[in-house]
Design goal:
By secondary structure, the chain is α+β, with helices and mostly antiparallel strands. It has 17 helices and 23 strands. α13 (372-383) links the parallel β20 (360-365) and β21 (388-393).
């Protein structure tokens, strides 16, 4: 392969794709497609724009994917059209304007005459350079997703055994990738050398295996958790069982700390931590760092619940459900009401006036990004009769975008880059405002900051990026 390696170290275009996704795979199960459907359903929070499943019957790969939620894409679907005992699936979230069916995953292609499918969670920071080089050499891209680059690289390298040549293709890419690959006779799971995104292994029996972005998916299908796919590891599952290869080692580890703050489901185990307990610890650390004299602690549902419980426990202030969330509000309901956007927060969140009237309230949320939603929440609490509203954020101030698979605003849109703490407090209308410090965050985790990526908080990117 003759890609111009000189171009692979330049900074990437900051407008490239940033997405959060979920991948799932099953090997040797009589209901592989149905199990994959359930696994994706458990990880719907990781992506709501599209969903898809590829199955293998031992000779061919069969694909069904579409735009929308898992339940929509597979509504009344005939499972006989997805035959086979092995499958991979994907749920995807994309940035605005890029939600196209051609970008929905899994991606399926013939690579040197062999059918292969791919499901990818993460983002490549050198995707622009790789795409330009591959196009100059004749590669024709079908979509705009950086995930397609893996297939073109693999095709260029060649070889009779695609899973054995994968390490050569991976040498060219930089950034975050936790992936499930499917051939007619094997399932392959891969995690990048820095381990940005989670990926775990489970099993039904000695010959039936599962891989997933989160352990909550294993729980739903009844699989037993085995271990994480290690950073830089390729796990191959075929008729011989499970085998492992370390394709690349990195002295630097960069697990995304925001997985523990927000993205992972609270009932998952991510990077060795029970997510719910980690978030409670964040709340406890926040109470120690930023106490306030108040009558009750309330969460912003659902993102602030665990941290609010931790804050209440540490502070001794009673926890209350001061805001009730309407769990049935979705995009299909909001979109027709474009002329009523100001009602968005009120439609989703309703304050309990009888509980809040005349009370001093500590409101806990997981993060504060643009500040617009927090401002509206504080206003509806004041309208409900709250005497004081103190906002506490169970993570540090977000000061920089993510380039490794999380959809975050541009730096200029982040409120913490435009105002100081007092300016933010005045803008959102709180009586007081405090963030959890980075030190307090990792103290709550009991971890060394150096093993995580916290670039959105400290701008210390593990790779070169164009900031």
């Amino acid at each position: 392969m003759s890609l111009n390696s000189r171009n692979l170290n330049v900074d990437h275009d900051k407008s490239s794709w940033k997405e959060e996704c979920g991948v799932f795979g099953v090997w040797n199960h009589p209901q592989a497609a149905e199990m994959t459907y359930l696994g994706l359903y458990a990880m719907q929070h990781r992506g709501q724009e599209s969903a898809g499943i590829v199955t293998s019957d031992g000779e061919k790969l069969h694909l069904h994917k579409g735009l929308g939620l898992v339940s929509d894409v597979f509504d009344s679907y005939k499972w006989n059209d997805l035959p086979g005992k092995s499958a991979i699936g994907h749920v995807r979230y994309s940035t605005t304007g890029q939600n196209l069916l051609i970008n929905a995953q899994p991606l399926k292609a013939d690579v040197r005459g062999k059918p292969i499918a791919l499901a990818h969670n993460g983002n490549l920071v050198n995707s622009l350079e790789l795409r330009e080089n591959l196009q100059k050499q004749g590669s024709l891209f079908q979509g705009t997703s950086d995930s397609e680059i893996f297939l073109h690289l693999l095709s260029r390298i060649g070889g009779d055994n695609w899973s054995q040549t994968l390490p050569q293709a991976l040498e060219w890419v930089q950034g975050a990738y936790s992936m499930a690959w499917m051939g007619v006779d094997r399932l392959v799971a891969i995690r990048d050398p820095m381990g940005f995104r989670p990926l775990v292994i489970g099993r039904f029996s000695d010959s039936s295996w599962v891989v997933a972005s989160e352990t909550c998916a294993l729980d739903l299908v009844g699989a037993q958790y085995v271990r994480e796919v290690e950073p830089g590891e390729i796990v191959t599952i075929d008729s011989r069982g499970l085998t492992s290869t370390q394709f690349k080692k990195s002295s630097k580890k960069a697990a995304c700390v925001f997985e523990l703050i927000y993205f992972s489901r609270p009932d998952s185990q991510t990077f060795g931590h029970h997510v719910y307990e980690a978030r409670k610890k964040f709340g406890e650390s926040l109470a120690l760092e930023s106490p306030v004299d108040a009558d009750m602690v309330i969460p912003v549902p659902d993102s602030g619940v665990a941290a609010a419980l931790g804050y209440a426990k540490q502070s001794g202030i009673p926890f209350e459900w001061g805001i009730v969330k309407n769990g049935y509000v979705g995009r299909t309901f909001i979109q027709p009401l474009q002329g009523m956007r100001d009602l968005g927060v009120q439609i989703k969140l309703n304050p309990q006036k009888a509980l809040l009237k005349g009370k001093r309230i500590v409101v806990i949320d997981d993060s504060l990004v643009r500040g617009t939603t927090s401002k509206k929440i504080i206003q509806i609490l004041r309208d409900a009769g709250a005497q004081e509203v103190h906002l506490r954020i169970a993570s540090p101030a977000t000061v920089s975008p993510c380039y490794y698979g999380v959809d975050t605003p541009e730096k200029s849109e982040l409120i913490a880059t435009q105002m100081d703490l007092e300016g933010i407090r005045k803008y959102i209308g709180a009586d007081s405002l405090a963030y959890l410090t980075l030190k307090g965050l990792f103290k709550g985790l009991g971890e060394n900051e150096e093993t995580f990526c916290a670039a959105c908080f400290n701008e210390k990117y593990p790779t070169r990026v164009n900031t």
